[in-house]
Amino acid sequence: MNLPCSSMHSDRTQKEREAAMRAFRSGTAPILIATGVSARGIDVRNVLHVINYDLPAMDHGGIEEYIHRIGRTGRIGHRGLASSLFTDEDEPIASFLARTLLETGQEIPEFLQHHVSEGQELKFEADSDSEPGDNADDGWGTGGDTQGTNDAQDANDGGWGN
């Protein structure tokens, strides 16, 4: 396909990471493949789609890490998508993911519906890396599945719809 991309991960030097971010921000490499090293503290505007190849483990940030990852897209009223590949190994985060989707008004995929019960409520901690003018509610997306369906919703002006 010959798609221009760059990568960020802990094995790259700081200089290489900075070069990858410059290429991504400038559009020279419009696809950035990154590990959790890019989940916090990096602000990139106009990210159109975040794809989680691996959902975060519960002992590595869990649902809060997931929210920070997908928060890179659809920010400040812009449209964006977030999709996640879900496997049996992601079962520990499944109930938290289902509750998050429920609370944000997203469609809950059939494979997560058994994790939702009447009256569930999820409380989020304050966004520790938000920037002035950012709205912590902007940019949430939804999870995807490995069966090939795209259950991600569009974000528009802080609301959700399709």
Automatic annotation (TrEMBL):
<dbReference type="InterPro" id="IPR001650">
    <property type="entry name" value="Helicase_C-like"/>
</dbReference>
<feature type="region of interest" description="Disordered">
    <location>
        <begin position="119"/>
        <end position="162"/>
    </location>
</feature>
<feature type="domain" description="Helicase C-terminal">
    <location>
        <begin position="1"/>
        <end position="130"/>
    </location>
</feature>
<dbReference type="Pfam" id="PF00271">
    <property type="entry name" value="Helicase_C"/>
</dbReference>
<dbReference type="InterPro" id="IPR027417">
    <property type="entry name" value="P-loop_NTPase"/>
</dbReference>
<feature type="compositionally biased region" description="Acidic residues">
    <location>
        <begin position="127"/>
        <end position="137"/>
    </location>
</feature>
<protein>
    <recommendedName>
        <fullName>Helicase C-terminal domain-containing protein</fullName>
    </recommendedName>
</protein>
